């Protein structure tokens, strides 16, 4: 199981680097709109920096496949949330997005949560599921995808209204987080199908399941929606919200869907549940909006 923990930490590093590279590249590109998906993709492909960020995210995806083969869903999500620490540090150093006081407290809380979740992982105490009924996966996934797309559209519609304060990214983060939650379930399911050394058998097992098609949809829709939102909002705000929603969705519904049991040892169970809950509280600790810009007062009277 410990190589699964290492793969999860590597995935955190790759995801954080990828998001920061993409955010930096997006600042140099023309305005993107999720309502024009083909235009979004064509513009993104003109940026070598954005492509480098997307390759880092793709490598993080590969590491995530390894994680779900070695760790139960709930433990993996607790470790994935810890990636917020590195993301906030990188966004501050590379993008100049200075963390607020609340964000600094969140860093400390997530570090403690990471230690608790990692301490709860014991060889032989956890059950790593080998699969789930695909009808149950679709029953969970399809309404969630519909809710994510609907919420994103609502946020877009409200942001276009005149005399309205600019969106702070919370709604975007929740919407994209729901899509990536379904993607996490699909990754978990796909990893359970790649259990044979025979390439043909593995391919048949994979493509006769709904998992690759869920991944295709969430990859395409998530790409367009997340990049348009990331261009408008701080990475240090929207990515933590998205990550927290994804991890909460995956930890709760994924554990139920794939029939995984939590540790039976009371101490390990307490560490797992409390650590995950503490990590998810990051969403509540983060500020809901960027500080209002300071306005200069009237010139002094001579």
Task: Summarize the structure in words.
With 302 residues, the chain is mainly α. It is built from 13 helices and no strands. α7 runs parallel beside α10. It is globular.
The low-confidence parts are none
The outline comes out as: globular
SSE string, helices as H and strands as E = HHHHHHHHHHHHH
DSSP strand count: 0
Query: How would you classify the helix and strand content by structural class?
Result: mainly alpha
Mean pLDDT: 82
Which key features would you list for this structure?
single chain, 302 residues, mainly alpha, 13 helices
Summarize the helices and strands and which ones pair or pack.
Blueprint: H1 2-26, H2 37-44, H3 48-70, H4 73-81, H5 83-95, H6 101-119, H7 134-159, H8 170-193, H9 199-207, H10 211-232, H11 235-257, H12 266-280, H13 282-285
Helix pairs in contact: 1-3, 1-4, 1-5, 3-8, 4-6, 4-11, 4-12, 5-11, 6-12, 7-8, 7-10, 8-10, 8-11
Summarize the structure.
This protein has 302 residues and is mainly alpha-helical. Helix content is 73%, strand content 0%. The protein contains 13 helices and no strands.
């Amino acid at each position: 199981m410990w190589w699964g923990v290492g793969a999860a930490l590597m995935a955190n590093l790759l995801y954080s680097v990828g998001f920061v590279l993409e955010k930096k590249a997006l600042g140099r590109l023309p305005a993107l709109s999720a309502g024009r998906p083909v235009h979004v993709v064509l513009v993104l492909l003109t940026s070598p920096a954005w492509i480098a960020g997307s390759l880092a995210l793709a490598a993080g995806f590969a590491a995530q496949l390894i994680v779900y083969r070695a760790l139960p869903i709930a433990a993996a999500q607790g470790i994935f949330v810890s990636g917020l620490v590195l993301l906030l540090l990188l966004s501050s150093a590379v993008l100049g997005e200075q963390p607020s006081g609340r964000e600094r407290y969140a860093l400390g809380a997530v570090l403690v949560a990471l230690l608790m979740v990692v301490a709860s992982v014991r060889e032989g105490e956890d059950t790593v599921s080998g699969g789930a009924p695909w009808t149950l996966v679709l029953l969970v996934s399809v309404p969630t995808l519909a809710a994510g797309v609907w919420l994103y559209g609502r946020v877009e519609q409200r942001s276009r209204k005149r005399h309205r304060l600019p969106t702070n990214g919370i709604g975007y983060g929740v919407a994209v987080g729901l899509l990536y939650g379904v993607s996490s379930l699909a990754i978990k399911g796909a990893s359970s199908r790649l259990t044979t050394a025979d390439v043909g058998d593995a391919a048949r097992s994979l493509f006769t399941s709904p998992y690759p098609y869920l991944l295709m949809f969430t990859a395409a829709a998530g790409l367009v929606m997340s990049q348009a939102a990331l261009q408008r909002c701080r990475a240090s705000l929207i990515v933590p919200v998205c990550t927290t929603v994804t991890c909460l969705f995956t930890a709760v519904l994924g554990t139920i869907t794939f029939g995984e049991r939590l540790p039976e040892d009371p101490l390990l169970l307490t560490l797992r549940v409390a650590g995950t809950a503490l990590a998810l509280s990051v969403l509540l600790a983060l500020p809901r909006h960027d500080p209002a810009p300071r306005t200069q007062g009237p010139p002094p009277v001579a």
